[in-house]
Amino acid sequence: MSTTAASSWSIKLHAPVLSAVTVAGLALFSASPAKADLRLCNQTGSKVGIALGYRDPQGWVTEGWWDLAPKACETLLKGALAARFYYVFAVDYTRGGEWSGRSLMCTRDSEFTIRGMEDCLARGYDRNGFFEVDTGEQKSWTIQLTDPNRADAPAKP
Questions:
Q1: C-alpha angle 157-136-34 in degrees, rounded to nearest 5
Q2: pLDDT above 70 covers what percent of the chain?
C-alpha cells in the first residue's frame, strides 16, 4: 500500500522561459523497506544545475552543483529527512533562466559546500535566492522541476 502527498505551486522566475516549479512529496509505506531520500527530478527538456540549502545540527549549509540531464532524477540527500524545510536554486544551462526564491543563501560557480548564510559576498561567495520546499516532515520527498510549456505545469496566478 502506498500513500502519496503532493502539492503544486508556481514561483516567479528571472527568465520568461521558466515560470513554474512543481514540488511533489512522496511518502511510501509498504511491507518492503522504503528508501528515504531527498530527490530532485528534472522534468524539463534542458540540462539544469541544482544547489541545495538546508539546516543541519551545525547550522545552515548550502551545497552544489548537481548537474541533471533532461528527464533525469538525482538523490540530493540520502536517508530519512532530518528537517521540514529545504531550499533549492536551479539554473537552466540549455535555455538560460533559473528557478529561484526569496531565501538568500551562498553559492559559487564551481562545486561547493558552504557553512552559514551570512556575509556571502564578503566571504568571496555569490548570493542567490532559493525557493522553499516544505516537506511536511515526511521522511522522503521528491521535488519535480517542470517546464512551463508542459500541459501539467501549474497555472499562473
A1: 120
A2: 71
